[in-house]
Amino acid sequence: MMEQEKQDHYETLAEQNQAEYSVQRSRFIAHAYPIHSVEEALELVASLRKEYYNATHVCWAYAVGALREENRMNDDGEPSGTAGRPIYGQILAQDVSDVLVAVVRYFGGVKLGTGGLIDAYKESARLVLMEAPRREVILLSPFTLRFAPHLTGTVMRLVKTMGAEILEQGFAQGESLLECRIRQGQLEILRSAAAAIYGLTCTVEEPNS
């Protein structure tokens, strides 16, 4: 089995959400956002710090990518491991990515202790993610098909059968060209099918990362 098979789909949030949780007079305001990049996550955190300028803490965690390749968590002055980590733990538990969860805390005068803080940040993150609408992200791979014009009917049937999307059609140096994209999980199946058709060449554009 390969180290970790790449997924060609994952879930993220369809829109931002907010939830509140209170314990021992401390108020926790949780925000969850769909994001597309680390830069966007950090901009949102900066915006929350301005909005809640008088809050005691703004703790957060984010994950970006199908396998959460880019991730980070921040305790913002809370004892190490009591805020960012439980927030990130809920991102994992609820199996989402391309998401930022930030929890704003207003201290209520009663110390919660390490265990109490972990529970409070975990529950805040759980609530805001659980109530947020989701959407599925499908990862697509671009590819080009080159073939003799008399194979047009055969190639079009292949593309339709595989559920690929045609982006552009063209003609160059006596060959027909189709620029397409397909769900990543179907790519190798399509390549095998294309290889079985004499005179049809399939070129895949490899991702940069």
Automatic annotation (TrEMBL):
Family per record:
Belongs to the IMPACT family.
- Origin organism of this chain? Porphyromonas endodontalis (strain ATCC 35406 / DSM 24491 / JCM 8526 / CCUG 16442 / BCRC 14492 / NCTC 13058 / HG 370)
Q: Which GO terms describe its cellular component?
A: cytoplasm
Q: Where is the Impact N-terminal domain?
A: 25-129
Name assigned to this protein: Putative YigZ family protein
Pfam families this protein is in? Impact_N
Q: Entry's SUPFAM superfamilies?
A: Ribosomal protein S5 domain 2-like
Any one Gene Ontology BP term = regulation of translational initiation
